[in-house]
Write a structure and sequence with these properties.
Elements lengths: L1 H13 L7 H5 L6 H20 L1 H5 L3 H5 L11 H4 L5 H24 L1 H10 L1 H8 L4 H32 L1 H16 L6 H24 L1
Length: 214
């Protein structure tokens, strides 16, 4: 599958009829050496690094190379046993890759009508593959939506109603209500204030004499 998708990308990008308009094609040019030379170095490393360093990475002395970065128990002999698998096991990945390259060539270079016929005759399968097996939708249904629901519940219910309701917002609301209630006592009339003072003096004297009598 990796070979198929990679070569599909190569064929659609660099082979066949261009799908860009004339304005885009007028600016198409080869990259300068400052970009090509690093790509050549990376390509050489990708092609030959496994061949040159295979003995160091997975050979008999791989312990010296990896050190303590990879813990391999003594009873785990998978790396050693991998050298003695049947020949068909070693050849099968190469055959599968070549088949993927051939299939990409047939569908996107040699016979594009076959791909169009497949899309027309297998719309359900094509939609399934085009939408990446609907993994994004499944991930959204299983994780994103529940997480969003939990987050909204904690935000509106926990943080908004409980923490802010009984905390800063609640205290501020009670203070505002108390201030509004107290402001109603401020009528601006002098006789109201004199009457309030008289009531206060009466209450104070009543309390004083009751304490003195006790």
């Amino acid at each position: 599958m990796t070979a198929f998708y990679s070569w599909r990308l190569l064929f659609m990008t660099f082979h066949g009829e261009p799908q860009a308009d004339e304005k885009v094609m007028a600016h198409v040019h080869e990259s300068p050496p400052v970009m090509l030379v690093p790509l050549y170095v990376l390509a050489a490393g990708a092609i030959f690094s496994g061949l040159l360093f295979a003995g160091m990475m997975v050979g008999d002395h791989y312990h010296d190379f990896w050190g303590q970065s990879i813990l391999i128990l003594e009873q785990n002999t998978a790396l050693h046993d991998a050298h003695y698998v049947p020949l068909w096991v070693k050849v099968l990945p190469i055959v599968a890759s070549l088949f993927g390259i051939w299939l990409a060539y047939v569908l996107y270079i040699r016979n594009r009508e076959a791909l169009a016929d497949f899309v027309a005759n297998a719309k359900g399968l094509h939609a399934f593959l085009l939408n990446k097996w609907y993994f994004d939708e499944l991930y959204d249904w299983l994780f994103v939506r529940p997480s969003r629901w939990i987050g909204r519940l904690l935000w509106k219910g926990g943080d908004g109603r409980v923490i802010d309701g009984f905390g800063p917002n609640g205290v501020a609301a009670r203070v505002i209500e108390a201030a509004r209630g107290a402001s109603r006592l401020q009528s601006g009339y002098v006789y109201h204030y004199a009457f309030a003072m008289l009531i206060g003096v009466v209450l104070l004297l009543t309390w004083y004499f009751s304490q003195a009598g006790a």
